[in-house]
Amino acid sequence: MAAADQPDAIALLKADHRKVEGLFERFEAAKGKSEKEALARQICTELTVHTIIEEEIFYPACKGKTEEDLLDESYVEHDGAKVLIAEIEAGGPDEEFYAAKVKVLSEQIEHHVGEEEKPAEGLFAQARKAGLDMNALGQLLAARKQELLAQIKSQGLPTPETRTFQGAEVERGEPLDASSSEPSQDETRPGAR
């Protein structure tokens, strides 16, 4: 594709946002488990590629030219999404909280997109106002995106890498009883853990 045919960075990233929003809508409307699983995997793939190209190319270009707090929040929001992506990828539609994880991921992404696309003060508006070369960034983003999609097609989805989460120790509790939101009988026993 010729450089003139490529969208600028913000147009490319916004197109990614619209695509994922559509996938989340399709997931919500899907009836069959196999359809839900296929859509969830596509969502995870799209978001994984999107977070990588933003973190490798777009966010570094914004550093020092946009509000530092907004950029920091973007990295943290990505890391939260990556944790849910890993959970969704490791699970399946037969698991009790599978659909809930996809729903929460959609809500996190909706918030994140709102922060990036907010008119006049969002990350994209700040980046454009700072005079970043959106055409050159768009070319870099598009090339890396194609490279990642080819890599995923041949090797599968990479393990998500968090940049801001420091690996804090988190204790894993007993799962909730599948028929209610109450702890399982074993969990209510004294000394259970």
Write the layout of secondary structure elements.
Elements: H1 9-29, H2 33-62, H3 68-90, H4 98-117, H5 123-129, H6 134-155, H7 185-188
What does this structure look like?
- This protein is mostly helical.
- The protein has one domain (7-157, 176-188).
- The protein contains 7 helices and no strands.
- It has helices at 9-29, 33-62, 68-90, 98-117, 123-129, 134-155, 185-188.
- The radius of gyration is 19 Å and the shape is globular.
- Listing every helix as H and every strand as E from the N terminus to the C terminus, the arrangement reads HHHHHHH
C-alpha Rg (nearest Å): 19 Å
Number of DSSP helices? 7
What separation lies between the terminal Cα atoms?
Answer: 57 Å
How would you state the average pLDDT, rounded?
90
Question: What is the percent of helical residues?
Answer: 55-70%
Summarize the structure.
The chain is mainly α and 193 residues long. The chain contains 7 helices and no strands.
Structural key phrases:
7 helices; 0% strand; 66% helix; 193 residues; mainly alpha
